[in-house]
Amino acid sequence: MIRTLRIGLATLTALVALAITVQVPLAAGQGTERTVYVSVMDGNGAPVPDMKQEEFVVKEDGEAQTVTKIERATGPIHYAILVDTTPAANAAVNDLREAITAFCELLLSADPKTEFSITEFGGAAMTTLAFTSDLPAITSAVNKLIPKPSESVLNEAIVEVAKEMAKLPENSRKVILTINMEPTKESSSVHPRLVADAVRKSGAAMWSVAVQNGTRRDSTREQVLKGLTSNAGGRWMALQQQKQLSGFLRSVAANSFSQYAVTYTRTVPATAKTVTDISLTRQGAFALSLKWNVD
Fold first, then answer.
1. Right CATH number for 77-256 from 3.40.50.300, 3.30.70.100, 3.40.50.410, 3.90.70.10?
2. Closest by Cα among 244, 293, 295, 286 to 51
3. Interval 223-240: pLDDT, tens
4. Which of 32, 46, 140, 222 lies 20 to 30 angstroms, CA to CA, from 187?
5. How large is the greatest C-alpha to C-alpha distance in the chain, in angstroms?
6. Is residue 166 pLDDT above 90, yes or no?
């Protein structure tokens, strides 16, 4: 059992790459410069600290671009944590609180400038904590998370959070994290297309984890989250046990500080429909990045 869990966490870690894209105009005739922040891991989920510029391959709409510079990303990260507070969270509320608190503590120990916000989405989308690095305030907000007798309004919560993240400086590293419980059902009337558009405009990476304590009730929501996270440089993942959440978030935190800033120049201005693909030539190294362009 222990060996199986370790393998599972290593696999999950390898899939967790938080990436955002920003666009910086250059002088006329010089094209457009863009920087992609991406985590690089090996097959065991361990960070790869010695990547070289020539090992990154950047394509836009299938056309190779010129990589001009890579460096380790050092700027602070803003995490918007969206937490399920539907009745499905009743049995897991203590594990949720412990895992989220430990996650924030670990990230703050690595970089005290990391900021977090907390939003719950049981019955209503409510941001109970604005962005802050104050650990006592974060802990207090997390400990007040209480399940409500209502269904999920995750779509509404994502849109509200994405709009707030869009107001942050465009060169900020931004991450939307949703923690979903099963079984539950999405009751928000917000159309998935509006959710995707809000996330794209925010410039945030997004990933979502589902803790499955029962049979899934909403396969449509699962498919929406899978599509969102894939386009926003992350992954949708499912955990079979709520106790796995703490270990999984620790692996996310560890990889959050193994990012590279990859800068490349393109000669044709990017559009909202541009699809960006980042790959690596190094055998056994893996990377994820934001696929859609940010306005």
1. 3.40.50.410
2. 286
3. 899 999 989 988 888 898
4. 140
5. 60
6. yes
